Amino acid sequence: MHNSRAFVFALILCAPFAANPNVAPAQPRARPSAGRVTPVASREMQSIVDGAVREALRKFADRKLTESQLAVTVIDLRDAERPAQGSFRGGERIYPASVVKLFYLAAAHRQLEDSRIRMTPELERALRDMIVDSSNDATGYVLDVLTGTSSGVELEGRAYNVWQDRRNWVNRYFASLGYQNINVNQKTVCEDAYGREKQSRGPGNVNHNRLTTNATARLLAEIATGRSVSPSRSLQMLELLKRDFAGKSDDPDDQAHGFTGIALRDVKGARLWSKAGWTSTTRHDAAYIELPNGARFVVVTFTEQQSRTRDIIPTIAGPIIDHFVNRKP
């Protein structure tokens, strides 16, 4: 009887890792700081952000938009070695919705670079669908591949602790790069989490995904400057993030036309790379923009309790973009 119980426990312990048994949940090695983007506070960027936020608060006063519902970070990449940053509530931890998929994309390329996982047609399809179509099903598969976990019934004791430790691999990776105040270890779902996924979120969703606009802007800046994992892998990530905002779309949640891209409609020659996220209570966008005059910058906007007010994000992005359009080289 004792041997039977041990056998059952072994099956339970191993079951969550069946999705990708080749992944070893090793502690990520600290990465050299040379590949990091370390923005410096800038009065110029801070003034631009403050002005954009004031304009949004004024314009949407009738919607009862408040400061506590906004977070914004801008990084000027004109000098990639010394990027300038301004932010408004940039360190606030906010549920990121699908913007978290940007972090899972970078983590996947880290593991691919380190040969911890290998690219397969199915993983390639999932990475594309996760970023281009913002598929939650694809995201769940990618997170399973990265961590060697899978969804299922609740777990208890050591089996749950081992599962949760493996699921935290993405957190450990970004911590090794110096990212702070974020939590990136949960799947995105269309309705709700069940079983061990709900168990992992904890009481009151205390362990749910959380990002700051500062951390999100930093990662997007690292991808844009070829510093995330490697130059070639950064280019592969950018290819998935590329958005064609020309023309029109009937979909208010289209990533190219429903977020920062709205503010670029009349800017000739502009180029956009982005990852949006939205739920019934949140509406976010992380955008990297290049202009014909050589300007390169990241603008990340998170909004809470205003998900149906789609014009807040382009209203904030508008004056920021105008500044870079009109600024002298």
Strand order in space, largest sheet: 1-3-2-7-6-5-4
Compute the average pLDDT: 91
> What proportion of the residues is helical, as a percent range?
25-40%
Low-confidence stretches: 1-25
Determine the structural class based on helices, strands and strand pairing. Answer: alpha+beta
Number of domains: 1
Largest β sheet strand count, sense and barrel closure: 7 strands, mixed
* Euclidean distance between termini CA atoms: 77 Å
User: What is the CATH architecture descriptor?
Assistant: 3-Layer(aba) Sandwich
State the CATH topology. Answer: Beta-lactamase
The CATH superfamily is identified as DD-peptidase/beta-lactamase superfamily
Can you count the beta strands? 7
Structural Rg: 20 Å
CATH hierarchy, class: Alpha Beta
- The number of helical elements comes to 11
In N-to-C order, the SSE pattern is: HEHEEHHHHHHHHEEEEH
Described by the principal axes of the CA atoms, the overall outline is: globular
How much of the polypeptide forms β-strand, as a percent range? 5-15%
